[in-house]
Amino acid sequence: MSVQSIRQSDYTPPPPPPPPRVETLRTSTPEAANATVAAMDANQADAFNAEVQALPASDRQTLLNDLATKLDAGNLVRLHETFGREAVADTVELRSGVETRETYQALTGTTPSGPSLPQLPAGMPPMDIARIEAQQVQRAQEDFAAQNIGSGALGAPYQLGTLASQHATEPAYLGELVRLANDAGVLDAATAPNWGLFSRDAEGGYMLAGADADSARSGLTTALGVAIERGVLSEGQIRHSAADNAGWREVASALGIDNVGRTQQTREAASALEELQNTYNDAKAEADTLNEELATHLLRAGPLTPEQQADFIEAFRSADGHADIYAAEADAGQALASHVEANRETLLAAAVRDPAVAAQMVDTLGQLADSGHGELALALLGEIQGVPDSALAGAFSAHTEALQGELFERIASAATVEIVARHDGDLQAAVADLKEAFAPLQNAKGLFDGVKGGISSFQDGMAMMDAIAAGDFDPLKKLGDEFGEASPFAHAMAGVGVVMGAIKASQSTQEGEYLEAVQGFASAGESGLNLLAGAAKHVADAGRLAQYGDDAARFATFAARLAPGLGVLASATSVAINVQKAAEDGNVGYAVAAMGDVFGMLGSAVALIPGPGTAAGSMVSGIGAVISAIGGFVGDAIDKHQTREELRGYMEAAGIEPAVIDAMLHAGETAHEVAGALGLDAEAFQALVIAHPDVAASPGHLGAFADLAAAAGISGDQVQGFADAMAGDKPDFAWDIFGLQSALPTSPAAREAMLRDYLEGNYGSAYAVAENASPELFGDAAQQQENARADYERNGFDMSYELALGNVLIRNDDPAYRAEMIRLLNEDGRLEIWVEGLAGYGGDWADATRASLDDAVAAGVIDRSTAEELQAALS
Questions:
Q1: What are the contacts of 475-479 at 24+ separation with CB within 8 A?
Q2: How far apart are CA 422 and CA 771, in angstroms?
Q3: Rounded distance, CA 458 to CA 460, Å?
Q4: CA–CA distance from 843 to each of 137, 360, 792, 801, 822 (Å)?
Q5: Could you tell me which of 476, 445, 442, 472 has the C-alpha nearest to residue 457?
Q6: Where is the composition biased (Polar residues) (predicted)?
């Protein structure tokens, strides 16, 4: 047997494609779907037809929509029996690419009539084509300028059409002529009512009549057809121009462009959608106002325990019709989503005909994302942009920047939250659905422009999901570090990544790694802050919808599985808010507004997870971090919307003791700042103000006590004992140290030194507590360090500071004094310069400097090698 015959006998042909099934085709690649449909026999076709007919009408149309983006023209023709010839033709017209659409029309004999467009001779060498087209383009530019067509003269459209008719065999000339005319506004003039080239009188005749005018109209029509063919204009642009313009409608008809002009159906679709949009916007505005008030109240209420926070939030959300307002927002969002889902074909078809409906749909996508329906928004975005040269994509071409910008980020993070929530926080299970949800966008035009940000392709984005689900945050960190220059798709994947990462971090105790990974977003300015805040809001939205309708079991699952991730996200957002606050043009408006939803959801979730566990801890720390971060931004909203007595009522409902309520109402948001500075949790802070109410008599009293405690090295569980000791020394200590504030120096170091001295001279018992807690701040060594700081502030910034500081070191040979002086110079980055400045003086200055460097080494201020290098410069 020959080798060839052995090879032939060993050959096993590949198995035939499986028979077509609805689910198989829905998840198939275009290649697999085409192979499957092409291979089906009569029995398989009958079985497939029966399965499709059993589907609800909306699911049947959804399947056809998907197949119109996957199948070639021949296979689409084969589906006539399954879906109906008219349904397939209509769907192909809107959703298939140009090549598929034109081939389908040719196969079915439905090719629209239009002018015969000029082409260069077939088979011409590429170099010759390039040369000829360049010449044609140049002539078009010269003729356009020579006849001054862009001047805005009434005769410009006629001149334009005449030029087009004279060069009717030159495609590059015609394409360039249309481009120039479009940029100059001449095309709109040509189709303007009453005086345009296509204007008609009351009897229906052209206002500009005659053979020359007919030739100009024909020439311009041909030129417009060439412009569409060459990508200068799109059919979508012409359709939208024709919505309100009879001249453009005539041009579209002449070019064989279908689906042109408003209809009663498009008008009704726009009207119904607008009504639902307005209802949602009004309901959301009311809920946003309440969320702002809730954030303000929580800020003014001071540090609360998790249980108190939960009870406070519940009291607020159910008070004075608040529950109705929150329910109305959820109802309005659901009504909008239900309407869009039920009428998506009508709405998208209307958007193809009407630019106003296209704009409405773009706005609607954002509303869906913000109302807990991001998955629907993502599906619509995939339909719109999935086939770049489809009529549907063309209808939204004017909105590409919006659809691929911040809106895409919002949709991506919202959809991710919903998909992960559907899997109860199981990221590994959610990844497959996430990949399927984003798959329609893998060929979208423009999404992958720009390759920075760690995501340069669709496959990179899918790999990022796998990595984060496995606990690897490196791809997320790379995205954050290069966020500003990333592609639109990378920005959307950032929305996915920050959500998945927060949930993974809360599940795997990787909060620290996650917060480090998202530092790049926190530092990326307003766009990075809004990304984090938006992701947090979308997680909160998922919890709100889980809670809506009193589905206790559903919300309990959310609280246990996803709310801890919301706490981690809130902490990350608080970091970004603080970064933006430090920037000169920091804008945190959206983030602060989004945090209202986050407060409410975290508080409600904490109520279901009591105790100090990891899950509750993430939520509580998230609340505290954001409350601290937004301080100063919403603190005065209480005066605009609510009264002190209403705040008191919410605090009473939360079970807070009257003494604590009084103290909090007096201290305001300063209570959070002081609790954070002193390391006190809510329980410890409340115990402090119960025992010593005067400490919180005003924000100034509280701040004065915090300054003294910090100067004395007191924090955490030492604070209560310190305050008790002060009260034992002098019962009105809070008023005493409050009155001292005006006498304190402005220098931080001198201020702290004076506070310690005052404590030593007036509060013996409290001084002993402080000395025992922080011995390094008291005694001879501490006094010498204070002296060094005072001398440094006094002499360290003179023109001759080198000699001035050298002189004080000669006069004071105390090791603690000298080590502190070296530390201060080193901390300011001036140590090396200072040593070099003294090197020329020698003598006592050099000796004191060498000794001071040795003292600094002994104190651990600098290392030995640094000291030796500096000492060598003195010799």
A1: 476/501, 476/514, 476/517, 476/518, 477/516, 477/517, 477/518, 477/519, 477/520, 478/453, 478/454, 479/453, 479/454, 479/455, 479/520
A2: 56
A3: 5
A4: 83, 82, 22, 18, 19
A5: 442
A6: 1-11
Q: What distance in Å separates the CA atoms of residue 93 and residue 68, rounded to the nearest whole number?
A: 9
Residue 672's nearest CA partner among 646, 642, 634 is 634
**CB < 8 Å & 24+ apart, contacts of 356-361:** 356/243, 356/270, 357/266, 357/269, 357/270, 357/273, 358/240, 358/395, 358/396, 358/398, 358/399, 359/399, 360/270, 360/273, 360/274, 360/277, 361/273, 361/396
Helical (H) or strand (E) element with 768: helix 764-773
pLDDT at 616: 61
**If we measure between CA atoms, which residue out of 231, 110, 216 comes closest to residue 182?**
231
Structure tokens that stand for 495 in this block? 């929305």
Following CA atoms 636, 637, 640, 645 in sequence, which dihedral angle do they give, to the nearest 10 degrees? -90
List the end-to-end C-alpha distance of the chain, in Å, as a whole number.
95
**Across 29-33, 292-296, 664-668, which has the greatest mean pLDDT?**
29-33
For residue 652 the two structure tokens come to: 């009473």
Residue corresponding to tokens 């809506």:
548
Ordered DSSP codes for 418-429? HHHHHTTT-HHH
**Cα separations in angstroms, 463 against 411, 431, 433:** 20, 10, 14
Q: For residue 671, which of 646, 654, 651, 696 has the smallest C-alpha distance? A: 696
Rounded distance between C-alpha atoms, residue 783 and residue 765, angstroms: 20
Say yes or no to pLDDT of 340 above 60. yes
- CA-to-CA distance for 508 and 169, rounded, in angstroms? 69
Specify whether the CB–CB gap between 21 and 51 falls below 8 A: yes
What does 28-82 look like in DSSP terms, one character per residue? S-HHHHHHHHHH--HHHHHHHHHHHHTS-HHHHHHHHHHHHHHS-HHHHHHTHHH
Residue type, 506: S
* Residue 619 to residue 615: CA distance in whole angstroms: 7
CB count in 10 Å sphere of residue 279: 16
pLDDT, tens only, 672-728: 889 888 999 889 999 999 999 999 999 899 999 999 999 999 999 999 999 999 999
Nearest to 860 by CA among 816, 810, 825: 816
> How far apart are alpha carbons 211 and 625 in whole angstroms?
77
Considering only the C-alpha atoms of the chain, give the largest distance between any 2 of them, rounded to a whole number of Å.
112
Query: What is the C-alpha to C-alpha distance for residues 554 and 834, in angstroms, rounded to an integer?
Result: 66
At 538, the amino acid letter reads: H
Q: Answer yes or no: is pLDDT of 777 > 50.
A: yes
Backbone angle region of 496, left / alpha / beta, with phi > 0 → left and psi within -120 to 50 → alpha: alpha
> Six-digit token pair at 243?
């919505």
Look up residue 457 and give its DSSP letter: S
b/e burial code for range 377-403 (CB count within 10 A of at least 16 → b): bbbbbbbbbbbebbbbbbbbbbbbebb
Q: Are 807 and 818 in contact (CB under 8 A)?
A: no
- Residue 769's DSSP bridge partners are none
pLDDT of residue 452: 57
Which residue, 822, 805, 875, 825, is CA-closest to 846? 875
Token pair of 614, please?
A: 């990891």
657-679 average pLDDT score:
86
Tell me the C-alpha distance between 687 and 725, whole Å: 15
Rounded CA gap, 237 and 87, in Å? Answer: 24
Residue type for position 856: A
Residue listed under structure tokens 């209480």: 638
Cβ 358 vs Cβ 270: under 8 Å: no
Instruction: Give yes or no for a contact between 287 and 279, defined as CB atoms under 8 angstroms apart.
Output: no
The residue among 359, 364, 366 whose CA lies nearest residue 396 is 359
Single pTM value for the model = 0.81
